C-alpha cells in the first residue's frame, strides 16, 4: 500500500502528482469468498477492514449496488459524539469515539476528525432535565459531558442568540468537548483503501438480489446482478435497505425506513466554531472545512425509499435556525439531499447473528450511525469472525424486541421521531 506522508506528498508534487496508485482496485467478483459483506458504506467497509486486519480473514468481498460511500455515509451531517444515556449504548459509542481518536493514524488516511465539541441545546424544562440526566449518566460511565448555563453556551458558541422573546429560548446545554465531526467520504475511502490493500475485493455496481440458503437453512451464497457468489457467511450492512435485503433470506426485522434530509449553505469564512444540536427543533449545525454551514433536519413523518424528503421539513429547520443564529438569515442555501435511514422501535441498532446460520446483520442505526462507524465495523467483524458477539454488541440483538430488553435511546438525538 502506498504510504501517505508529508514527504511522499512533497516528492509527488515535484513530479506533477503523476504516479499515485489507485486507492483500491476494481476487481471482478470471484466464484467464492469466506465472507461477503452487503453494502460498501462506512460500516461495511470498516467491517471488511477489521476482518482482514484483526482476524486475518482476507478472502472477503464487499458488494455494493451503487458506488462506494454513496449511501448514508456520503449523505450525513458527520456529527460524532458518545453522550448516550444507557450503559450499553455509552459503551458502544465510546468504543467508536476512542477509535475515531486514532483512526487517521491507523488508516494512514486523514479522515479529518475534528473534536471541536458538540453542544446540545435545551429549550424547555423537559430538555434541561433530560440533558442533565445524560450528563450525570455519562460521567458515571467515564464519558465527558458537562452542563453549560445560557451564558456559557453563548461564550462557547458566540453566534447563538440568547436574547429574550425567542420561540425557542436557550435554557442551557450539554457539551461533549470530545465530540465533533469527520470528513464522511474520507472515512469510506480510508477504510476501502485499507481493506483493499489487505486483499478484500470491493465490488461496486453489484446489487444483491437474493440470499441463497441450503436444505438445512444455512447461507450458501448471494445472488447478485453480476452472478452468484458462493459463501458460508454473509454480513448485511445495507442501512435504509436492510429490511429489503434481509427479506431475501426470509428474515423480517423490526425496522422502518424514513427519508432524512440535510443541506449546505454557500461557503463563508469561519463563523461557527463548534457543532450545535437542537433536538427539540430538529436543527443540527456545523461549519465544514470548505466554509459551508452543514445543516441537518428531521425525518419525514412517513416511511419511504424515495431518498428525498418533504420541503416543509427543511423550511421548518431553517425557520428555527434563523431564530437561533440570526446572522444565518443572510446565507443562501446551495444544495439539499436526502438519505434513507433504518429506524428500530427503541432507536438503538442491531448488530447480531440472525436465526439463519451464516447470516449476520448490522442495522437500525437510523439517524445516528455515522459516529459509530469504526466501533460498529470493529464489533461486527468480531461477530462474523467468531460467530459470537463481542461483549460490547452482545445486548444489541434482534431478540431484545421479542423479550422486551429494549435500549431506549429515543432522547439521544431526537432526529428519529
Ligand atoms: P450506508 O452508507 O447507507 O451504506 C449501505 C450501503 O448498502 C449503501 O451504499 C447501499 O447502496 C448498499 N446497499 C443497499 N442495498 C443493497 C443491495 N441489495 N446490494 C448491494 N448493496 C446494497 N449519523 C451520525 O452519527 N451523525 C450525523 O450527523 C448523521 N446525520 C445524518 C444526516 C442525514 C441526512 C442522513 C441520511 C443520515 C445521518 N446519519 C448521521 C446517519 C448515518 O449516515 C448512518 O447511520 C450511517 O452512515 C450508516 O452507515 P452504513 O454504512 O450502515 O450505511
Ligand atoms: O446522531 O448526532 C446525531 C445526529 C445529528 C444529526 C443527525 N444525527
UniProtKB/TrEMBL annotation:
> Entry's Pfam families?
DAO (PF01266)
Q: Does the keyword GTP-binding apply?
A: no
Give the GO terms filed under biological process for this record. Answer: tetrahydrofolate metabolic process
Q: Which GO terms describe its cellular component?
A: cytoplasm
Tell me where in or outside the cell this protein is found.
Answer: Cytoplasm
In its UniProt entry, what is this protein called? Sarcosine oxidase subunit beta
Q: What is its EC number?
A: 1.5.3.24
Q: Does the keyword tRNA processing apply?
A: no
Arranged from A to Z, the UniProt key words for this protein are: Cytoplasm, FAD, Flavoprotein, FMN, Nucleotide-binding, Oxidoreductase
Q: Which reaction does it catalyse?
A: sarcosine + O2 + H2O = formaldehyde + glycine + H2O2; sarcosine + (6S)-5,6,7,8-tetrahydrofolate + O2 = (6R)-5,10-methylene-5,6,7,8-tetrahydrofolate + glycine + H2O2
Q: Which InterPro entries match?
A: FAD-dep_OxRdtase, FAD/NAD-bd_sf, Rhodanese-like_dom, SoxB
Q: Which cofactors go with this protein?
A: FMN; FAD
Query: What main location does UniProt list?
Result: cytoplasm
The family annotation for this protein states: Belongs to the SoxB family.
Outline the extent of the Rhodanese domain.
35-79
Q: Which GO terms describe its molecular function?
A: nucleotide binding; sarcosine oxidase activity
Amino acid at each position: 500500500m502506498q504510504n501517505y506522508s508529508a514527504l511522499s506528498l512533497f516528492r509527488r508534487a515535484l513530479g506533477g502528482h503523476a504516479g499515485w496508485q489507485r486507492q483500491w482496485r476494481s476487481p471482478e467478483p470471484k466464484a467464492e469468498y469466506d465472507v461477503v459483506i452487503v453494502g460498501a458504506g462506512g460500516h461495511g467497509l470498516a467491517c471488511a477492514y477489521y476482518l482482514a486486519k484483526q482476524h486475518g480473514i482476507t478472502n472477503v468481498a464487499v458488494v455494493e449496488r451503487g458506488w462506494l460511500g454513496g449511501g448514508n455515509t456520503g449523505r450525513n451531517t458527520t456529527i460524532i459524539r458518545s453522550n448516550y444515556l444507557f450503559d450499553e449504548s455509552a459503551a458502544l459509542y465510546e468504543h467508536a469515539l476512542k477509535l475515531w481518536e486514532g483512526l487517521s493514524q491507523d488508516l494512514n488516511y486523514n479522515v479529518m476528525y475534528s473534536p471541536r465539541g458538540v453542544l446540545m441545546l435545551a429549550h424547555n424544562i423537559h430538555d434541561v432535565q433530560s440533558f442533565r440526566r445524560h450528563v450525570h449518566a455519562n460521567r458515571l460511565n467515564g464519558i465527558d459531558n458537562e452542563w453549560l448555563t445560557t451564558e456559557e453556551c453563548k461564550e462557547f458558541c458566540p453566534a447563538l442568540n440568547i436574547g429574550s422573546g425567542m420561540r425557542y429560548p436557550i435554557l442551557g446545554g450539554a457539551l461533549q468537548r470530545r465530540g465533533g465531526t469527520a470528513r464522511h467520504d474520507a472515512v469510506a475511502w480510508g477504510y476501502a483503501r485499507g481493506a483493499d490493500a489487505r486483499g478484500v475485493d470491493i465490488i461496486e455496481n453489484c446489487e444483491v438480489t437474493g440470499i441463497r440458503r441450503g436444505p438445512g437453512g444455512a447461507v450458501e451464497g448471494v445472488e447478485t446482478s453480476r452472478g452468484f457468489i458462493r459463501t458460508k457467511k454473509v454480513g448485511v450492512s445495507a442501512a435504509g435497505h436492510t429490511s429489503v435485503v434481509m427479506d431475501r433470506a426470509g428474515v423480517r426485522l423490526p425496522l422502518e425506513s424514513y427519508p432524512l434530509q440535510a443541506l449546505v449553505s454557500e461557503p463563508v469564512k469561519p463563523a461557527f466554531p463548534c457543532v450545535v444540536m437542537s433536538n427539540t427543533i430538529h436543527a443540527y449545525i456545523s461549519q465544514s472545512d470548505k466554509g459551508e454551514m452543514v445543516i441537518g433536519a428531521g425525518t419525514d413523518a412517513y416511511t419511504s425509499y424515495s431518498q428525498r424528503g418533504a420541503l416543509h421539513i427543511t423550511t421548518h429547520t431553517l425557520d428555527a435556525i434563523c431564530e437561533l443564529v440570526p446572522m444565518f438569515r443572510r446565507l443562501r442555501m446551495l444544495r439539499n439531499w436526502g438519505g434513507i435511514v433504518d429506524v428500530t422501535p427503541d432507536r438503538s441498532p442491531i448488530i447480531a447473528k440472525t436465526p439463519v446460520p451464516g447470516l449476520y446483520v448490522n442495522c437500525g442505526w437510523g439517524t445516528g450511525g455515522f459516529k459509530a462507524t469504526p466501533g460498529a465495523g470493529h464489533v461486527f467483524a468480531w461477530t462474523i469472525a467468531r460467530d459470537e458477539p463481542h461483549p460490547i454488541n452482545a445486548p444489541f440483538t434482534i431478540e431484545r424486541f421479542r423479550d422486551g430488553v429494549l435500549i431506549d435511546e429515543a432522547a439521544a438525538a431526537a432526529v428519529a421521531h
